[in-house]
Structures are given as C-alpha cells and as structure tokens.
Amino acid sequence: MPDDQHLPEPDPPKPEQRLLDSREVRIAAAILIGMLVLGLAGAGIGYLKFARMVDRRLAAGAFSNTFNIFTMPRTVARGDRLTPEQVAARLRHGGYTTSRSNPVGWYHVTPRTVEIFPGRESFVASEPAVLEFSDGKISRIFSLRDQTERQTFELEPQLITNLSGQRERRRLVRFSSIPLPLVNAVISVEDKHFFQHSGFDLSRILKAAYIDLKDGHKEQGASTLTMQLARGFWLGPQKRWKRKVEEILLTLHLEGKLTKQQIFEDYANEVYLGRRGTFAINGFGQAARSYFGKEVSQLSNAECALLAGLVQRPSYYNPFRYPERARDRRNVVLTMMRHNGYLPEEEYRAAMNAPLTLTPERLSHRNRPRVSPASTSSI
C-alpha cells in the first residue's frame, strides 16, 4: 500500500447535530437537578413531619402511656422489729436515694438511725423524721419538723412495675441512677463511640458493609443507640428502605433535640430484654428486678454485663432457659469492657468467675398491688 495513502478523515459533526447533542445534555441535566430538588424537598418535608411527631411525644413524656403499680404504703411504729438497713432497702424500693436532689426523697443511714427526708414528688408526703433503733427494733420516731416524738411513720409505697397497653413491663430509671458499669457495658457491646458521634458511626457502618460484602450476606449491624431508640419508639419492625430513611431522619432530630444522657436514659427504659409470662420486659430497671430481684443501681459488674449482652438476642440468651449461653455472652461483654479500659484486671477476673445467680421477680400475696391515683389518668 503506498505510503501517501491515508484513511479518510471522518466528517465533522453538522451544526444541527451538535445543537441536538447539547440540547439532550441540558435536558438530562435538568431532569437530574429536578429529581435532586424533589428528593431534597421530600426529605425536608419528611424531617419536619417526624420532628413534630418526636416533639409531641417528648413534650407529653416519652413514657406517658404507662401507669405505675405500687404496693400499699407501709406504716412503721415504735417497737416494730426492723433494722436500719431493712428500712433503707424499703426506701430505695420506693424511689429514695442518698442524693439530696432526688425529687422523691433522700435518706441517710447509720448503724443506729435512719434520717428520712421526703421530696416534692413523695407519694405519702410525710414529714422529715429520724428513726432510731435498739435491740433489732425501732425504739424512737422523732419528727424533724416540730422536734417532737411520733408513734408511727408512713414509708413510701414500693414500685412493683410500670405497665402499658402493649403488655410491656418497665421500671423507669433516671440516667443518674444507672450504674456506670452498665453504661460502659452497653456502649462496649452496642455502640462504642456513642458519646462521641452525632448519631451515626461512619467507621462502624463502613466496617459492617465491608464484612457483609465479603461474606455475601448481611450479618453485621451498624445501628447506634440513637438509631435503635428511633426504631423502637416510632417505627415498626418492617425492614424496608423507606423505614431506614425514616430512621435516619428521626435519628438526626433526636441528636439535635436531646443530650446524650437523655438519649441513653430513654434507650435504657425502652430496650427490649426478654419476656416473663405474657409480658415483655422493657428497660434495664425492669430487667434488673425480673432477673436479679434488685434495683438497677445495685447491679454488680457481672450482672451489668449480662443485661447488656441480652440486647442482641434476648430469647436466645435467656439466662433462665439457656444459662451457659447467657454466661458465655456475659463474658464476651466483660472482655470488651476490659479491652475498652472500663474494668481493671482484678474486677474483670472476679466478674468473669462470678456464678450466674438469678432471682426471678415474684409478687407475694402480702404486697397486693394497687394503681397509683396519679397514674390512672393515662390508662
């Protein structure tokens, strides 16, 4: 073939063809921009809708649809066979603490006395008093209001549980009464960076996506505590892309509306932790009573780890039915707490070797329940 022979050059595009191509690009760009604007507008409308829904519930009280069941108040008298610790335990079960800022009331106990100071939210509204003890019984009741002796003193009724129309049982707790080991156990196993992120843990999301992609199926969860709270409070169990978008919008608003302590408190009262009979156990306060017969503030490191471990699969790790599974899961949580620096070596070893001691909640016939009048209006 001669060297000077070349392939024919393509014809340059005609002006009308260039105009047509340019017009198609502009149309496609306009469609994409329009879709983006509509999508952002829809997200904004959805956010406002969920924001109003969240604000209404928070304004009414996150758990305003529950009502309280108490035992009858107990009146103690001079000569009753009681010890200071027994009276203090009764006060704790009635909502008292040793903090003077507690709205229900506070107390101070010594080997021979119990000082009792009812708060503004006290049910019985008794006067402040000192109970003195001698030889295993109450020897004197002294009013701090008028500095005179009394023959009797009425103690706060004990909260048995809270019930809702969905057959849920819970004992509401404040963040201040949740022991630090329980907070550390929950964030270790459920949301390590809870107090640092703004509702979404990007590193955890990317890690979960990578593992799921590598294994070829979805196994890893990346939901933060805020996302779990949004899902539990306002969304159903359906797994649809629309619900995930709604979950994100709710999470954004919750993080902007509440402090981390408030979010954790609501989560601690809402989280599902198993069943007792026909009732669901919701919240760590109820779980502490149902599994260990204790107030949440009295839980040990091992007990905190067990409750935190139940969050993932409450039925599978049910300690009454599957004690070995529950113990193994508890020890996994303890190991994570140790790894995150929440447990010193000595406490870690003691908790790992602690027996699985359960005390199921029972209601004795002597403590027949009643509904508090202040709560019946929400039934």
Structural description of this entry:
The chain is an alpha+beta fold and 379 residues long. The protein has two domains: 67-157, Penicillin-binding protein 1b fold (2-Layer Sandwich); 161-378, Biosynthetic peptidoglycan transglycosylase-like (Penicillin binding protein transpeptidase fold, Orthogonal Bundle), CATH 1.10.3810.10. The chain has helices at residues 15-60, 84-93, 180-190, 202-215, 225-234, 241-257, 260-270, 284-292, 301-310, 323-339, 345-352; strands at residues 66-70, 74-77, 105-109, 113-118, 129-134, 137-143, 149-150, 152-155, 159-164, 168-170, 272-276, 279-282, 370-371. A hairpin with a 3-residue loop joins strand 3 and strand 4 (113-118). Helix 1 (15-60) crosses helix 6, helix 5 crosses helix 6 (241-257) and helix 10 (323-339) packs antiparallel against helix 11 (345-352). It is elongated, with a radius of gyration of 30 Å.
Kindly state the number of beta strands: 13
* Share of β-strand residues: 15-25%
Task: Kindly report how far apart the N and C termini lie.
Answer: 98 Å
Helical element count? 11
Brief account:
The protein is α+β, with helices and mostly antiparallel strands and 379 residues long.
